[in-house]
Specification:
The structure is a single chain. By secondary structure, the chain is of the alpha/beta class. The relative contact order is 0.15. Bound molecules: threonylcarbamoyladenylate and magnesium ion.
């Protein structure tokens, strides 16, 4: 599919999966109720879970932008940073789940930027996976998970983890979701951040869940953990982890999907160092591990 075709479908109120630098999003223009309902239906997402809005560059279209937000936008947009801000009344309730806030970001992938530029309307685009599953980082992932949905193929996503979310709706900025823009970078621009008190709906402890149970350990314990599981008769896949955190993050969801095809009883991997991008990698690994555990162990 071409950019022009994607723009035509979206403008007509249809839903199209779009590449961003983080993960693929399931896009629909925010002012077409049928597009928004279709996004919820395709994802199997509970109503009331708000959707991220993507803009070409102007957050004012959907949000009230204060000086803190302005500073972040100048330094870090376009890029993998979502801001939680007071909404404008023009944003439909169906998009914000009826909240008085809106999550907004300006994505960096050149294809979604072309789409946004040509459409000249903000797009709601949650990750293009079914509710609770691993986010897609390649066009093939979307085609497997949401068959029949048109996909604009932009290749593998460079970042591979969902955007960092910063909550600027309160007096103290809060980190709602770790991502490629790390805490250190944000604190240099904003001062100290708190963890988000009210975790975003959808930011469930068990999320990003593979079907195969995921086992996490420290790098030093990986081989003994794998040996013990194998000795117990389990088929164990080891998910390789490199020393380059960016490459690890970009490959993470693709690896999880490939290993999660019924060949194994367990997927084992080591946690990343708890700094920079490692914080976001470990956050997703822990959610995936919880989501894959039997219900009584979550
Ligand atoms: O990188 C990303 O952010 C990707 C790409 C496609 O842009 N999108 C993404 O969307 O991860 P989604 O819907 O899977 O995650 C958005 C998170 C959800 O946990 C949602 O609950 C939260 O943002 N969120 C959105 N609007 C919100 C609001 N008004 N208040 C609180 N949380 C909100
Ligand atoms: Mg998601």
């Amino acid at each position: 599919m071409s950019v022009e075709e994607a723009v035509r479908l979206l403008g007509g109120g249809e839903v199209v999966a779009l590449p961003t630098e983080t993960v693929y999003g399931l896009g629909g223009v925010i002012d077409r109720p049928e597009a928004i309902s279709r996004i919820y239906a395709l994802k199997g997402r509970p109503h009331g879970h708000p959707l991220i809005v993507h803009v070409y560059d102007d957050a004012e279209q959907v949000a009230v932008v204060d000086s803190r937000a302005r500073g972040l936008i100048e330094q870090l947009w376009p890029g993998p940073l979502t801001l939680l801000l007071p909404r404008r009344a023009s944003v439909p309730d169906a998009v914000t789940g009826g909240r008085d806030t809106v999550a907004v970001r300006s994505p960096a992938h050149p294809l979604i930027r072309l789409v946004l530029q040509k459409l000249q309307r903000p797009l709601a685009a949650p990750s293009a996976n079914r509710f609770g599953r691993v986010s897609p980082t390649r066009a093939e992932h979307v085609a497997e998970e949401l068959p029949g949905v048109p996909v604009l193929d932009g290749g593998p996503c460079a970042v591979g983890l969902e955007s960092t979310i910063v909550d600027l709706t309160g007096e103290t900025p809060a980190l709602s979701r770790p991502g490629a823009i790390d805490r250190e970078t944000l604190e240099r621009l904003l001062g100290p951040l708190t963890e988000s008190l009210a975790a975003a709906p959808g930011m469930l402890k068990a999320h990003y869940a593979p079907q195969t149970r995921l086992i996490l350990c420290s790098p030093l314990d990986l081989s003994s953990t794998v040996a013990a599981l194998r000795a117990a008769g389990l088929r164990v896949a080891v998910m390789p982890r490199g020393t380059d955190l960016q490459a690890d993050a970009a490959a993470l969801y693709d690896q999880l999907r490939r290993l999660d095809d019924g060949r194994f009883d367990r997927i084992a991997t080591a946690l990343a160092p708890e700094r920079g991008l490692g914080v976001a990698i470990n956050d997703r690994l822990r959610r995936a591990a919880r989501g894959s555990a039997p219900p009584e162990q979550r």
